[in-house]
Specification:
This protein is α/β, with parallel strands linked by helices. Helices cover 37% and strands 17% of the residues. The chain has one domain (4-310): Ribonucleoside hydrolase-like (Inosine-uridine Nucleoside N-ribohydrolase, Chain A, Alpha-Beta Complex).
Length: 313
């Protein structure tokens, strides 16, 4: 089967790094046309750096990395150093990247790629705030209908939020951008906290990364060691959720996930519930479904896939 063409839009973040590595370790499944960085977990100067670091870690300095939007559409940037550390990739000591950042803006790369590739052949994989994607839609409305699918990490329903009681971080950082994307009419697959909070690192799963005996395996284990400290204290859980690799895992092994088509609307007016993904799971409104919203995951299968693909790098 021909690999699916994807653009990864990201704000690395240790879990974003896992997602990038999973994609780069799966060339028979996904063809990474480029990586676009956005401000989110940490500011843009860190996220574009981190994307290049991860590509070099994977031995893929040929991947094109672009810097995108450095702030949300209408709001002051909120970041998550309290989770990811100052650099976004805290934990192991990372070597500064030597591969060049591509000239030009990430939004223009997204637009140009969607116009150049045959319609319906490119999937967008946003792992952070949706600012770059929404800006592309505003700048070039013609590209919207050319997208095969958007598979994103964001939101929550029964699990609530992780940055406010009801809002998940990626959506909360730029709710206006999320609103634009969810209303655009593009086929959406959503990996919410309801799924990602079931994809938890454990001692055994982190040990499996380390047991690969490679530099990638060591770094992955050290990222997990750092990353999980926050969630273990917050939730009292055994480990931390690896949110973003769920996006890439769905593209490779969709049978690992279960969900249903529902309507998802993003709250952009209420300061109390700003950024909430109002998810009509039970079909109590007449709003048409606009997203395949995931609710379950085979966590053992997910970590087996992730570990196997990391082992290739």
């Amino acid at each position: 089967m021909t690999p699916r063409k994807i653009i990864i839009d990201t704000d690395p973040g240790q879990d974003d790094a896992f997602a990038i590595l999973l994609a780069l370790g799966s060339p028979e499944d996904v063809d990474v046309l480029g990586i676009t960085a956005v401000a989110g977990n940490v500011p843009l100067n860190w996220t574009e750096r981190n994307a290049r670091i991860v590509c070099e870690l994977a031995g893929r300095a040929d991947i094109k990395v672009y810097a995108g939007c450095d702030r949300p559409l209408k709001r002051k940037l909120v970041t998550a150093e309290h989770v990811h550390g100052k650099t976004g990739l805290d934990g192991p000591v990372m070597v500064e990247p030597t591969m060049a950042l591509q000239p030009g803006h990430a939004v223009d790369f997204i637009i140009d790629t969607l116009r150049r590739e045959p319609a319906g052949t490119v999937t967008l994989c946003p792992l952070g705030p949706l600012t770059n994607i929404a800006t592309a839609f505003q700048k070039a409305p013609d590209v919207v209908e050319r997208i095969q699918q958007i598979v994103l990490m964001g939101g929550g329903c029964f699990e609530g939020g992780n940055i406010t009681p009801v809002a998940e971080f990626n959506i909360f950082v730029d709710p206006e951008a999320a609103d634009i994307v969810f209303r655009a009419g593009v086929p959406l697959v959503v990996m919410p906290l309801d799924v990602t909070h079931k994809a938890l690192t454990t001692k055994a799963r982190v040990a499996a990364f380390r047991a690969l005996g490679t530099n990638v395996g060591r770094v992955a284990a050290e990222w997990a060691d750092f990353f999980e400290r926050f969630d273990k204290e917050k939730y009292g859980s055994e480990g931390a959720p690896l949110h973003d690799p769920c996006v890439i895992a769905w593209l490779i092994r969709p049978e690992l996930f279960t969900g249903r088509r529902v309507n998802v609307t993003v709250e952009v007016q209420s300061e109390l519930t700003m950024g909430q993904t109002v998810t009509d799971w039970w079909g109590v409104t007449d709003r048409a479904p606009n997203a395949l919203f995931m609710g379950g995951i085979d966590a053992d299968g997910f970590f087996a896939l992730l570990t196997e693909r990391l082992g290739r790098l």
